[in-house]
Design goal:
- The structure is a single chain.
- With 206 residues, the chain is α+β, with helices and mostly antiparallel strands.
- It has 2 domains: 8-76, Winged helix-like DNA-binding domain superfamily/Winged helix DNA-binding domain (Arc Repressor Mutant, subunit A), CATH 1.10.10; 81-205, Trafficking protein particle complex subunit 3 (Muramoyl-pentapeptide Carboxypeptidase, domain 2, 2-Layer Sandwich).
- 51% of the residues lie in helices and 18% in strands.
- The chain contains 8 helices and 7 strands.
- It has helices at 8-19, 24-31, 35-47, 81-96, 98-120, 125-138, 162-167, 170-183; strands at 22-23, 51-56, 64-69, 143-148, 151-156, 187-191, 200-205.
- The strands form 2 sheets. Strands 4-5-7-6 form a 4-stranded antiparallel β-sheet. Strands 1-3-2 form a 3-stranded antiparallel β-sheet.
- The termini are far apart.
């Protein structure tokens, strides 16, 4: 099978990853495309905040700019963090048993609980739930809060630790326990992404 050549945009990203910051002229020369084409793709990447620019003064004439990748550009490149995390947890169970995994998840919950409590303190229940939804959204869970039939429903449409949760359901149980703790309410899990539902859903009675 013949490998597909990357698009001009992909080629620019790969070039910046390999060589670090480069000017428009350097990119155009390296890829054999026009400066106009390079600027067009860089403008799009700048708008997405996947590329940033640094002003470079020149001995003569107008200054130029050197472009470089930001952390957001990591999404362009293969990552194996989830697989590594799952493998490490599997190894932990093999070495020390399932009880050690429970202790690990509980320790994580303790840490998150302290962080969340700082944001939720001195608020009534609706305010705590709104802040919790904001916190989860900031962490990549795409959280949405709504009121339904005398209760609050928190839905999470993304799971940043999906691979871990799919393999070790303790992660889901710990999440439910975390919400109960920081809200000081009974929290019922009604749906989960790992079971094939469109979101993780939690019901909290008023």
């Amino acid at each position: 099978m013949v490998a597909r050549r990357p698009s001009a945009r992909g080629a620019i990203v790969q070039l910046l990853k390999q060589r670090g910051e480069l000017t428009v002229q350097a990119i155009a020369d390296a890829l054999g495309i026009t400066q106009v084409a390079v600027r067009k793709h860089l403008e799009a990447l700048l708008a997405e905040k996947k590329v940033a620019a640094r002003r470079v003064p020149l001995p003569r004439g107008r200054p130029t700019y050197a472009y470089y990748l930001t952390e957001l550009a990591d999404s362009f490149f293969p990552q194996a963090y989830d697989r590594l995390a799952v493998e490490l947890l599997d190894d932990l169970i093999a070495i020390d048993g399932a009880e050690k995994l429970d202790r690990l998840f509980r320790a994580r919950n303790e840490r998150l609980s302290r962080t969340y409590q700082l944001r939720l303190q001195d608020k009534d229940l609706p305010e705590r739930l709104q802040e919790l939804a904001r916190l989860r959204d900031e962490e990549g869970y795409m959280a949405v809060l709504e009121r339904r039939e005398g209760a609050f429903v928190l839905r999470e449409h993304n799971c940043p630790i999906y691979d871990v949760a799919q393999r070790h359901r303790e992660a889901c149980n710990c999440e439910q326990d975390l919400f109960s703790r920081v809200l000081n309410r009974d929290v019922k899990r009604q749906a989960t992404l790992v079971d094939g539902q469109p979101c993780c859903e939690y019901r909290i009675n008023e």
